[in-house]
Specification:
Strand content: 15-25%
Order of helices and strands: EEEEEHHHHEEHEHEHEHEHEHHEHEEEH
Bound molecules: magnesium ion
Number of helices: 13
Number of strands: 16
Shape: globular
Strand order of the largest sheet: 7-8-9-10-11-12-13-14
CATH topology of the largest domain: TIM Barrel
Radius of gyration: 20 Å
Largest sheet: 8 strands, parallel
Amino acid sequence: MPIERVEAIPFRIPIKAEIGPIESNIWAMDAAEHVLVKITDADGVVGWGEATPRVTIYGDTQASTVAAIREWIGPALVGLEPYAVEAAWQRMDRLMHNLPAKAAVDMALHDLLGKRLGVSVVQLLGGMARDRAPLGTIIPLGPPENVADIAVQAVERGVQTLKIKVGKDPDRDVRAFRAIRRAVGERATLAIDVNQGYSVPVAIRVLRALGEDGLAWAEEPVKAWDAAGKLKVAQAVGVPLLLDESVFTPQDVLREIRNGACGMVSIKTARSAFFRSRAIASICEAANVPCVLGSARESALGTVVSAHFAAAARCVVATELGDHVIYEATLLREPPCLANGCLVLPTGPGLGIEIDEAQVRRYRLD
Ligand SMILES: [Mg+2]
């Protein structure tokens, strides 16, 4: 049945008081200020998605995301059949940028479609027949002793991949990485995310030093627009560069792989959802480039979305999933099941989640 309504609901869920605000080189936050997207078809079947606007990355805010959906995207989709995901993207792309808004719509369409067909999204994607996705975590910028504590707690929860935010102070970054390595030993894969914070010579120096300590990959070490700089770093160090802010779209991924500096790709369902993430995954598989399923610090809803894709896609070798636990609440009736270092996918149709309307009323901003 055709799409009847597309709603955008801004919400704010604070980060738990004991965790406090978290910081990276380009972003600091004390709450998820995201947008819940609800799509209803003519039979009353509902699909859900979560948009994660990031003004320092995509140029959009919570208010601009709500406006994009209410004024542009929603009206363009009413009347379209929910299985026509490619047509939906074509219509959405009349509006430039706004990737988190478009991604949330794609998530909701897949949720709705799965519910109509009685299959889960991971089944709909026709992937690897896996029922779970490995957990990871993002360790925010902070003093070496603090971040080592956070790392140990994560490893004790079963987290397999630790991504350490760096990029503001190279010497402190090296100390923080080594403190974490000492604290967790070989129990976890360690990566860094520089968020474009280093110059080319500093990136080469830090990555060579941490390479000796088993740095698995280094994310966006220099400016995302500096193609020559990225290539220089990639050729000078033995650690693969993982690209994130350089690769929002399939076209970006192709360009970066051709440039020769792209060792790995961060796929984020927060910006490419299912449809565009599949295109990115296909390019990466064809180029033999492994992928990490990256987190946009989604709430539990967006985390389940990412887990469906991670479980389906062969090229995904690690994730950053599981950090939804930093928030004081979830909009879901049942929080995702975390067991043995993995997120076990819910088995119900679509995303397999149920939205808790009382929680939505409590955390919505409008
Ligand atoms: Mg990143």
